Amino acid sequence: MVQKFEAAVHNADVRRMVSSGDRHRDLSEAWADTHYIEISADSLEEAQEKLNRRYPSDQGYVIESIEPALD
To answer: How many domains does the chain have?
Structure first.
């Protein structure tokens, strides 16, 4: 059964660069802040997999949390 989840994501590279007064060459400064992203998946594990593909850690993304979305 498809469920909705809410994830909190930021980019550590952007956060570090903004704090030192620099700019990331590809991402906006907004990624220094936490973004709340809604995702549909059959399970928490599937939601985690989808988020890892969309926001890979090797590109600086940090998935802070994933919770079932409140309806």
So the answer is: 1
From first CA to last CA, the distance across the chain in angstroms is 16
Contact present, 6 and 36 (Cβ < 8 Å): yes
- Residue whose structure tokens are 């919770």: 67
27: containing domain: 3-68
Place of tokens 């809604």: 38
Supply angle C-alpha 34, 12, 29, rounded to 5: 65
pTM of the full structure: 0.90
- Specify the CATH number for the domain of residue 27: 3.10.20
Reading the chain (71 residues) residue by residue, the pLDDT tens digits are 899 999 999 999 999 999 999 999 999 999 999 999 999 999 999 999 999 999 999 999 999 999 999 87
Nearest to 32 by CA among 51, 11, 62: 11
